[in-house]
């Protein structure tokens, strides 16, 4: 068993937490679904709490029990509004509050209480959150859970950004998505440098070339047994379920195709490829991706502003197209977005009504008084 195997003394305290990082559209579902064949491993569809983070500062003093309980109720509601439900799990906000009320208070502690309770009900020793964007909150997570591990999944930025460009959850512009990619990988690199023993980095392309070798490596890192069943994704009920819910997931019920690693060459122009290679060249060199251009694209603030304007128009069109082409996908995503908007309206009104002295307490962690500046990371 690997050195990261859970200490036997942790049996009474529940499963060990793992966060997959750093950015969606990296092949994360393919890995999660296969690892879920292990009875010792549990990883449900992620909450993507990054979308909730701009609201956290609006709650006020989390040291107040009523305020913290309201946040718990709202996070439980977010879980209920998720596109993919967690099998055989229903949460009682009162029980969640009682479990976490005497620990450092934050939205992350609430999220992980849901995950760990669900994992315990499934008798898991490892619980993984696939909310990759939470890499930006890694320091707090380590503060909350001293044994947390991180699975850093790297994908060729050209392929990943090409995939992001087609996803309603991201921007509809190569430049903007490349900037997001760099920011995420900067956070992952910093985390790996400061906590090398906590982070396992794998390349998605290596998984495409040899699933078994990569899965065995991950299992060793987690301290769980590799199972041959992990190689037969067609037997995954969840893979079959989610592949029919969204075009973003339709390939998840099939074996990966190595040739797809180069599909970006048909989807991106050479100008777009050079933009990506210009911004990500450090990481392409770091992870062994060969460049196709001189990587000297000119990028100015004005170009970024214009890209944001184009992307917003394309995003509105994408939502309209989604409603026409896959109404189930649209309705499920819209329900979650509407729920977050409802919370925003309620919290904004409540914050405006609070006395001025209370508005200074944007977000309080009773252990460290950490203040979050997270609005720029939202992806509603």
Pick out the low-confidence regions: 1-12, 361-380
Query: So, the CATH homologous superfamily?
Result: P-loop containing nucleotide triphosphate hydrolases
Strand order of the largest sheet: 2-3-1-4-5
The number of distinct β-strands equals 5
Give me the Rg, rounded: 21 Å
What does the main sheet amount to? 5 strands, parallel
DSSP helix fraction: 40-55%
CATH architecture: 3-Layer(aba) Sandwich
**First-residue to last-residue Cα separation:** 41 Å
Order of helices and strands: EHEHHHHEHEHHEHHHHHHHH
User: Which overall shape is indicated by the principal axes computed on the Cα atoms?
Assistant: globular
**CATH class, anyone?**
Alpha Beta
Structural class by helix and strand composition: alpha/beta
Organism: Candidatus Muproteobacteria bacterium RIFCSPHIGHO2_02_FULL_65_16
Protein name: Sulfotransferase
Keywords: Transferase
GO molecular function, one term: N-acetylglucosamine 6-O-sulfotransferase activity
Tell me what the structure shows.
The chain is an alpha/beta fold. The protein has a single domain (8-374), classed as Rossmann fold (3-Layer(aba) Sandwich), CATH 3.40.50. It has helices at residues 28-35, 53-56, 65-80, 93-100, 107-121, 138-144, 157-164, 174-194, 204-209, 211-222, 237-243, 264-267, 270-287, 301-325, 327-353, 356-359, and strands at residues 16-21, 41-42, 126-129, 149-154, 199-203. Helix 7 (157-164) packs across helix 8 and helix 14 (301-325) packs across helix 15. Keywords: Transferase.
């Amino acid at each position: 068993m690997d050195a990261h195997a859970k200490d036997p003394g942790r049996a009474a305290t529940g499963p060990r937490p793992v966060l997959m990082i750093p950015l969606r559209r990296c092949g994360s579902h393919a890995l999660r679904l296969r690892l879920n064949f292990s009875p010792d491993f549990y990883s449900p569809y992620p909450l993507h709490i990054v979308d909730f983070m701009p609201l956290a500062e609006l709650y006020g003093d989390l040291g107040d029990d009523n305020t913290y309980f309201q946040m718990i109720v709202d996070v439980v509601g977010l879980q209920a509004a998720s596109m993919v439900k967690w099998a055989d799990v229903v949460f009682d906000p009162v029980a969640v509050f009682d479990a976490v009320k005497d620990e450092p208070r934050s939205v992350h502690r609430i999220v992980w209480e849901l995950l760990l309770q669900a994992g315990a009900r499934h008798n898991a020793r490892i619980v993984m959150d696939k909310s990759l964007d939470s890499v930006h909150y890694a320091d707090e997570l380590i503060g909350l859970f001293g044994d947390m591990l991180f699975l850093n999944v790297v994908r060729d930025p050209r392929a990943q950004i090409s995939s992001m460009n087609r996803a309603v959850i991201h921007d509809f512009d190569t430049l903007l998505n490349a900037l997001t990619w760099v920011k995420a990988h900067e956070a992952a690199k910093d985390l790996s440098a400061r906590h090398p023993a906590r982070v396992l980095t794998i390349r998605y392309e290596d998984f495409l070339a040899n699933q078994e070798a990569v899965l065995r490596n991950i299992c060793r890192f987690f301290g769980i047994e590799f199972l041959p069943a992990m190689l037969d994704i067609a037997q995954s009920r969840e893979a079959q379920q989610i592949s029919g819910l969204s075009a973003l997931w339709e390939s998840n019920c099939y074996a990966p195709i190595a040739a797809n690693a180069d599909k970006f060459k048909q989807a991106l122009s050479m100008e777009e490829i050079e933009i990506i290679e210009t911004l990500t060249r450090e990481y392409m060199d770091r992870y062994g991706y060969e460049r196709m251009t001189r990587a000297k694209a000119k990028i100015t603030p004005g170009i970024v502003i214009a890209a944001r304007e184009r992307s917003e128009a394309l995003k509105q069109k994408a939502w309209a197209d989604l409603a026409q082409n896959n109404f189930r996908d649209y309705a499920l995503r819209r329900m979650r977005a509407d729920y977050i908007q409802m919370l925003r309206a309620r919290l904004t009104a409540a914050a405006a009504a609070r006395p001025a002295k209370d508005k200074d307490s944007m977000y309080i962690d009773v252990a460290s008084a950490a203040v979050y500046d997270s609005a720029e990371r939202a992806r509603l």
